[in-house]
Amino acid sequence: MKEKLIQEISNAMTDVLDIEQQAQLNGVLLQIISKYTITEDGEKAHEDIATNDRLLEVFLSAKQVEGCTTPTIKYYSSTIKQLFKKMPKKVVSYTTEDIRAYLAVFQRKNKSSKVTIDNIRRIFSSFFAWLEEEDYILKSPIRRIHKVKTGVQIKAVLTDENIEHLRDNCKEPRDLAIIDLLASTGMRVGELVKLNREDVNFNERECIVFGKGNKERIVYFNARAKIHLEQYLATRKDRNKALFVSLAKPHNRLEISGVETRLRKIGKQCKIVRVHPHKFRRTLATMAIDKGMPVEQVQRLLGHVKIDTTMHYAMVNQNNVKLSHRKFIN
């Protein structure tokens, strides 16, 4: 930095001093400046904000600009703050060994699954990669911590009989409409509760939903869902623009927790294990691929950015694999 400053002054004086005078000036400057520590204004500003909390705040702002949802931002924040709490040192001083030790202790104390640990690793990777890109650190300590290997678990889906039992146990038109809409569209529960009446096109049997990152897409529902939606809306006396509202006054927009609680209650009545909104989404993906729908179209239907995510959701029926083996290989 000192040499850079001397060179800039020397260049500025080129038209005023001759070569011998410039050499003398450089010698004097070097002698005087050597007594001081010199930094650029930008560098000082960088140091001023390089506290852990401040860096986290700026990082979360960057993720928000990139389109991350509020729940995702909160998850990032709580996960990284937990690291700061357990390892109270400057974030720019973290090493690979620090992070490995933290993950190992976290897994042992909380008896966390490999999936959970890898999710934490991915959050740390995003944070430290951002620090590296923004020149707060030279190299991310997560680079040498590889993806945690997790076994592929075949998660249960709802059978046709399960869905019929759930329908039969609905006492309210709203609940029946919710089940039919989830089963026929495969939309996320977060997308369901954001729907307004105006978002639904009954003639085309489609509706506009806003997925992760507020990305807009069209989903489609069947005739059964259309009929039950219309019947439910016909019972509504409120003026709330939301498609689904609470049963009790003042009939506020239904929240995610409300949908989850209702489905869990109906599932228990039917003696069906673990009934939740996401299970309908996984069921649709599996059914669509089993019936020959191109995986690229299933990906678009579900609103996935990566096709690998779609394949992870869709567990192909083993009987279909057996039939295909007999048809194409035997």
Mean pLDDT: 86
What percentage of residues falls in helices of 4 or more residues? 55-70%
Strand pairing plus helix content: what structural class?
mainly alpha
Compute the number of structural domains: 3
CATH topology of the largest domain: hpI Integrase, Chain A
What is the helix/strand order?
A: HHHHHHHHHHEEEHHHHHH
Superfamily at the CATH H level of the largest domain?
Intergrase catalytic core
Per CATH, the class of the largest domain reads Mainly Alpha
- In the predicted model, the low-confidence regions spanning at least 5 consecutive residues are 44-49
The geometry reads as elongated
Radius of gyration, whole Å: 29 Å
**What is the number of strand segments?**
3
Please give the count of helices.
16
Give a short account of the largest sheet: 3 strands, antiparallel
Strand content: under 5%
Strand arrangement, major sheet: 1-2-3
Name of the CATH architecture of the largest domain:
Orthogonal Bundle
Report how far apart the termini are: 74 Å
